[in-house]
Amino acid sequence: MAADLLAALVATLLDAAPVVLVVGGFQAFILRRRPPHLPRVLIGAAYVLLGLALFRLGLEWSLLPIGADLSERLTAPGLAAAPDGEVPWTRFLWLYLFAATLGFATTMVEPALTAIAERVGAMTGGTLRPMALRLVVAAGVSLGLLLGTLRIVTGLPLPWAVAGLVSLIAVLVALAPRQLVPLAFDCGGFATSVVTVPMVAAFAVGVATAIPGRDPLTDGFGVILFALLSPVASVLAFSAVQARLQRGQNRGGIDAV
């Protein structure tokens, strides 16, 4: 275990070296000033590196094997019920339910989304509540992972599925308030971060490996794209509905006066 931790620390240091060089170089040669509270900054950086190393080990030992094992076990009943080789998509209801709940649960604990939601709530004066934003984004990821799993099972080509989702987003952009459109597009990146991506990737590759006729490389990957785009659509739809309701309330208040 100690050797694995040491190897993870070395790999993390190598991965973080370009960031350290860029930040340190600009601080030393462009700004030419010492960072404030340098000892505290260095201690914090050490904590970050240690956390990343431990997270790397956690992925290898826990999340990735669990995601692959769950996908294999959840696809087995549907395959057993189709001995003739035909795999109807209706055989995998438990797989779809797990995909949807997995997307929702992992998104709700994403640290990046939590931090940004609190920031957005403060900037909007509480108009857009942090928990509401997190729930809407998590619902979008849940839908995206469900759609991605359906695409793997049915064998629908990725370009067709993505084109349909992008077309929906284009329509929602025209309906949503303009000031919230950039936030909606960024929410996809906030949602697909350190917790969601490894688990979803392992799950999707496991599903593509278990389904006959599917290629883990061409079918297993691409699900993250659905998890990235679906929150954009959910936030746009939520903001469009919320704006419409507010306009209705304002119009009702004016009529009452």
Low-confidence stretches: none
The general outline is flat
> What structural category arises from helix and sheet content?
mainly alpha
Compute the average pLDDT: 84
Order of SSEs: HHHHHHHHH
Instruction: Report, as a whole number of angstroms, the end-to-end distance.
Output: 72 Å
Radius of gyration: 22 Å
- Number of alpha- plus pi-helical segments: 9
Query: What characterizes the major β-sheet?
Result: none
Number of strands: 0
Number of domains: 1
What does this structure look like?
This protein is an all-alpha fold and 257 residues long. It has one domain. The chain has 9 helices and no strands. The longest helix is centred in the N-terminal third of the chain and has 43 residues, at 38-80.
Summarize the structure.
The protein is mostly helical.
Helix/strand layout:
Elements: H1 2-31, H2 38-80, H3 93-108, H4 111-123, H5 130-154, H6 158-175, H7 181-191, H8 196-210, H9 223-256
Helix pairs in contact: 1-2, 2-8, 3-5, 3-8, 4-5, 5-8, 5-9, 6-9, 7-9
Features:
mainly alpha, 9 helices, single chain, 257 residues
